[in-house]
Design goal:
Helix content is about 40%, strand content about 20%. It is built from seven helices and seven strands; from the N terminus they run αβαβααββαβαβαβ. Helix 1 (about 25-35) crosses helix 2. It binds adenosine-5'-triphosphate and magnesium ion.
Length: about 230
């Protein structure tokens, strides 16, 4: 014992937990919620640290209360097409691991990926999860196969989905970024019971992805810009 008083740090430097104090953003919250209700996809742009991730986490929390299946996929660490496939599979497995029957269903569909659970005191519930590739498939065909499996899950028309892809602009920097965009777009455009929120903080790259005529995601989503929070 040191006798030093311990106090919880009242400031959050990371993404805000959904139960932490939250300022403003009512308008953007309502807009995102209503786009999700109407299965409309959104590109959400702002400079770094303006609160994109915290805001969509809150919107997804609300959507879950309403019965939506909300998946959050952060691709900020991805540097290849395999990474993107793996992060998509991980996002789905991490949602499915909440319920055993759902986990079994996902394992039956995602044949190339298996979940790996390990004990991790810093993770929620003391367990962290990654996915392991269990097929010989690589590159674009792995992403194709992963998206095919995803489509199969989304075919359950009784469910409504909202999928966040955080730091979406990362894809544009890949060696075969254009092909990755094309594969994702091809699948996403047929998913009718689903909305996507594509988040990013590099205005030019993100804007080119969605506003240039020769790009796969051309005019596929509503643009929403997060302004700076008022003091
Ligand atoms: N509405 C809010 N009220 C109070 N604090 C907030 C709010 N939104 C975000 N913050 C705080 O601002 C910081 C940045 O938030 P967040 O990580 O959500 O931003 P971001 O736009 O996703 O950033 P990055 O581009 O780095 O991913 C965090 O410390 C978070 O706790
Ligand atoms: Mg963020």
């Amino acid at each position: 014992m040191t006798g030093r008083a311990t106090m919880t740090n009242p400031f959050y430097l990371r993404v805000l937990p959904v139960d932490a104090p939250f300022c403003g953003r009512e308008k953007e919250f309502d807009a995102l919620l209503s786009h999700a209700h109407s299965n409309t996809s959104v590109v959400l742009y702002s400079p770094r640290r303006y609160g994109k991730t915290s805001l969509v986490k809150r919107v997804q929390h609300q959507l879950e209360q309403e019965g939506f299946i909300a998946l959050y996929i952060d691709i900020s660490d991805a540097s290849s097409v395999e990474d993107v496939a793996s992060l998509i599979a991980r996002g789905i497995y991490s949602f499915a691991s909440k319920e055993e029957s759902l986990l079994r269903k996902v394992m039956g569909v995602f044949k190339s990926w298996r979940p790996v659970f390990s004990s991790d005191p810093s993770a929620t519930g003391g367990v962290s999860m990654t996915v392991q590739l269990v097929s010989q498939n690589t590159g674009m065909s792995l992403l194709e196969e992963t998206m095919d499996s995803f489509d199969q899950l989304l075919q359950d028309k009784n469910e409504q989905f909202n999928i966040v892809i955080d730091e979406f602009q990362e894809i544009a920097g890949f060696r075969d970024g254009g092909k990755v965009e094309a594969i994702l777009r091809k699948h996403i455009q047929h998913q009718s019971n689903c909305s996507y929120f594509f988040l990013g903080s590099r205005r030019r790259i993100l804007s080119d992805m969605f506003n240039q005529k020769d790009r796969p995601f051309y005019k596929s989503s509503v643009n929403l810009e997060l302004p700076v929070l008022a003091e």
